[in-house]
Design goal:
Length: 249
Amino acid sequence: MKLNVYDTPAAASQAAAEVAAGILREAIAAQGRAVFVAATGNSQLEFLKHLTAAPGIAWERTVMFHLDEYIGIPSSHPASFRRYLGERLTSRVPVGRVHFIQGDAPDLSAELARLNAAIAATAIDVAFIGIGENGHIAFNDPPADFATETPFIVVNLDEACRRQQIGEGWFVSIDAVPRQAISMSVKQIMKAARILCTVLENRKAKAVKTCLEGEIGPMFPASILRTHPGCEVFLDRDASGLLSQAALP
């Protein structure tokens, strides 16, 4: 894992997007297409803005997998991750093929089977992710399942995760936040050849310290990123504020 720290959120986001654009261009040049995983949340806002503005990406030769989605929420809901990615990614650039998670599918078992079949036959070039205030990656809250080989799973959302969604302004109350989601599993995320993780703001500083300096294990889901040789983490000064000097680049 490589750690990068920047003075501002904007600088961290732009740097991550520049690396991301390079990976996509290289994959398309080498193999004719690029397969990527897209995340949502406040940490991805500026990242996606810069990525979709990057020159020279043949977006029509890309394939996108969606990282996670609430169960029971339609794509029209303001907090829907399909809506988020539609507004900030797929409406801005012509992604060749999009695998959105239908969290409101009438048959969730069939939806999981569809997603799992699609991704099982596909090598992921790069995953764009963040870290939650509780240390989660995707919606794999602690204690995260580090063992399952299933690519997409149903997960229960813990209270810290659900309260983060209120704090970020996606929901008006805890009762409005769904209790379950479909999430890409930890092992599936780790199968990506490259992982770019952008983490911003001081509210993430405790999770960053715990996951980057503490024990590697399911209670600290993002800690697993330290074992991935192709992972880069992009932090602003606030998110890195609790890291020891030894941990800083």
